[in-house]
Amino acid sequence: MYSNSRLTPGAVIAEIVKANIPVANGVVHLIHRPLVIVDMHGLEMLTDNSHTLWSKFRDLIEDYAPEFLNILRGMNQMTLFVPQDDAVSQMMQTNFMSNRKKLLEVLMMHVVPDAITIDKIKRNNQNHIYQIPTMSSRRFIYFNLNENRTTHDKIVTVEGGGVNASLILGDIATKDGYIHIIDRMLGVSYMTVQEKLETDPMLNLTYHFGKLNHFNDQLNMTNKRFTYFVP
Q1: Is residue 88 domain-shared with residue 201, that is, in the same domain?
Q2: CA separation for the pair 105, 108 (Å, rounded)
Q3: Is the domain of 88 the same as that of 165?
Q4: Structure pTM?
């Protein structure tokens, strides 16, 4: 929705509580809250059990890093980059969960102490890669725009701690900022060098170059460690 003196720009999520009510000229769906009205802070929305889009992320925080909620409670403005459920499940299958301090640092990388819309990211990403400091000490996240070759839509990607994620759903409005849903957990490097090249749009040309003569095959080995200088 568009902003004015009383409304915040962004999206409002509502649950359909009764669907497919037939009427003479169409169908009606009953929802549990009015759209347009932004009535919750980011922390409230994140911990509200009625929002199932980030249920795994909420469970991860409550079970393994409850102190993260106390940090959010003291913030005036925030933008949260929330990994979708599949990304959280994939991360929880690694040995990363044994280090609670490292987990908290990674969670802080998903928080920006400012209200950042997708439109603002696109405006600031015209001639250079847009970077924003996160709540994790001396850690930034970096944004890029990539065009879908089929639809020509601009896809927003965000990189943090060596992981590149694509935006799935953006501009979910809260009273103190925004929530954006992404398809990967930032800061958890669970990919091989080859997988990183294949999935990161900024490294895409080098990946296709390396497919010649099967050069990339060695980069998928897990019994060796690599440093790859990519143009």
Answers
A1: no
A2: 5
A3: yes
A4: 0.78
DSSP calls for 94-155: SGGGG-HHHHHHHHHTTEESS---HHHHHHTTSSS-EEEE-SSTT-EEEEEEEE-TTT-PEE
| Cβ(183)–Cβ(169) below 8 Å | no
Task: Report which of 105, 129, 71 is spatially closest to residue 188, judged by C-alpha positions.
Answer: 105
| Residue 226, domain member (yes or no) | no
Split into its structural domains, the chain has a count of 2
Closest listed residue to residue 209, CA positions, set 186, 228, 190: 228
Give the domain range for residue 170.
Answer: 42-182
Q: Output the domain CATH number for residue 55.
A: 2.30.180.10
Q: Are residues 211 and 97 in the same domain?
A: no
In this structure, what DSSP letter does residue 211 have? T
Alpha-helical runs (H) found in the chain:
42-47, 55-64, 67-73, 85-92, 100-108, 118-123, 193-199, 204-210
Residues 173 and 196 in one domain: no
Question: pLDDT 10s per residue in the chain (231 long)?
Answer: 455 555 566 777 888 899 999 999 999 999 887 877 777 889 998 998 877 889 999 999 999 999 999 999 989 999 999 999 999 998 888 777 788 888 999 999 999 999 999 888 888 887 777 899 999 988 999 998 877 667 777 788 899 988 888 899 989 989 889 999 999 999 887 778 888 888 777 787 899 999 988 999 899 888 888 899 998
